[in-house]
Amino acid sequence: MIILTAATMAGVSAGAPLLALKLSSTLLFSAATGMLLIMNKIQPSQLTEEQRNATRLFKQLYRQIQTTLALRDPTELDVKDAMEKTLALDKAYPLPLLGRMIAKFPEKFEPAVWWPKSNETQGRKQPKKVTTQGKNGWSEDLEEEMREVIEVIKKKDSEDYMRLGNLALTVNKILAISGPLLTGIAAAGSAFVGHGSWAAIVAVTAGALASTVNTFEHGGQVGMVVEMYRNCAGFFTFLEESIESTIQEGDLEKREGEMFEMNVALKLGRSLSQLRDLARKSSSSHADGTNIDEFASKLF
After folding, report:
1. Can you give the pLDDT at residue 96?
2. How far apart are CA 25 and CA 207, in angstroms?
3. Cα 132 to Cα 138: distance, rounded to the nearest angstrom
4. Counting CB atoms within 10 angstroms of each CB, which of 26, 33, 122, 242 has the fewest?
5. In whole angstroms, what is the distance from residue 115 CA to residue 69 CA?
6. Could you give the CA distance from residue 55 to residue 178 in angstroms, rounded to a whole number?
7. More confidently predicted of 2 and 127
8. Is the pLDDT of residue 223 over 90?
9. Whose CA is closest to 10, among 177, 186, 166, 169?
10. What is the pTM of this model?
């Protein structure tokens, strides 16, 4: 509204140059430029999405701790695990405007990482080859199924969200630069209204373009879309690492087996039969030399 008001004043003052209108238009354009610089630096819609995800993840962690307390007395390992998860989550989603914020315009789009990175897998022994059905339901068929699911997630879901995230980030960068630049040009043009028709044309045109750019950027919540893609890509990265960590577990008794398969299916919004069907399709596509035409997740 500030930009449109300033553009209207600049257009009116071109016909009958009035100092009050010219100064008001210049001041309004200048104020809009300052506001846009702050807004584009903070990205309010992206901050909202960040904190929404942080709240959801903290609640999830809280329920996990409550479940542990309800089932048994916590061990030192439980306390350490909860602390690591809390610190990793706090690092991934720091409180905004109170110190360090998440970079809104990174050079490279990367998935969100809210879980603690562990070096345990580096020191693990080579996982045992499963040839029979284990006590916990883990089998060779289940292991192959999980490997196929990882393959689909990497080639379809993760790749697609990384592509969309990079596209949204590029668009957001262009819009964030264009908005203040156009209002700055409009402010300069309005200051010279009365010294030629070109000044009013520049002020009104730049103001109209700035209004369009900012409506698309903030009305379309482009920052929120970037954060949504970042979080979705992080979800698939987390799922990949969880499956790989389970497959690489050297102690067969620690592999959750059928319960783990059900957990993966639920996270992907599938039933067990649908998950197994997806793995079969992926295996068949390798044999035929074709690409699978289905995404792993039915939730996003």
Report:
1. 77
2. 10
3. 8
4. 122
5. 21
6. 33
7. 2
8. yes
9. 186
10. 0.86
Residue 78 and residue 198 in contact, taking contact as beta carbons nearer than 8 Å: no
Residue 186 three-state SS: helix
Helices 19-42, 197-214: inter-axial angle, 10-degree rounding: 30
pLDDT of amino acid 136: 67
Token pair of 132 as six digits:
């029979």
- CA distances to 59, 238, 247 from 144, rounded to whole Å, are 33, 19, 10
Residue 148 and residue 270 in contact, taking contact as beta carbons nearer than 8 Å: no
Tell me what pLDDT residue 291 has: 82
Residue with tokens 């009365």: 194
Distance separating alpha carbons of residues 45 and 230, to the nearest angstrom: 14
Measure the CA–CA gap between 28 and 264, rounded to whole angstroms. 54
Query: What mean pLDDT do residues 16-22 have?
Result: 79
238 alpha carbon, distance to own chain's centre: 13
- Higher-pLDDT residue of 31, 195: 31
Q: What are 137-168's pLDDT values in tens digits?
A: 788 888 899 999 999 999 999 999 999 999 99
Q: Are 161 and 299 in contact (CB under 8 A)?
A: no
Nearest to 6 by CA among 209, 221, 178: 209
Rounded CA-CA distance 234/57 in Å is 12
CA distance 265 to 281: 16
CA distances to 41, 49, 210 from 215, rounded to whole Å, are 16, 19, 8
Site of tokens 């903070």: 42
Q: What's the one-letter identity of residue 264?
A: V
CB 29 within 8 A of CB 6: yes
| Amino acid 279: pLDDT | 93
Instruction: State the burial class of residue 220 (Cβ atoms within 10 Å of its Cβ: 0-12, 13-18, 19+).
Output: middle
